[in-house]
Amino acid sequence: MESLRPQGRLTDHIGLGVVSARFNRDLLEEVLNRSGRREKRVRRLPAHVM
Which pLDDT score is estimated for 29? Predict the structure, then answer.
């Protein structure tokens, strides 16, 4: 039986524009903080502005 688990990363299957259009920024920030998946580089502008 085939696994129902998707292969690869979420962004291989769905665009981030779709995610950000569906979920508000506060929720996305909370998920990123809890998962430890923040951007690694410090930039002049925050990631949500780009």
Answer: 86
Output the pTM of the full model: 0.51
Domain contains 1: no
Enclosing domain of residue 15: 8-38
**Domain count across the chain:** 1
How many percent of the chain have pLDDT more than 70?
A: 82
- Quick check: is 50 in a domain? no
Interior/surface letters 9-42, b for 16+ CB within 10 angstroms, e for the rest: eeeeeeeeeeeeeeeeeeeeeeeeeeeeeeeeee
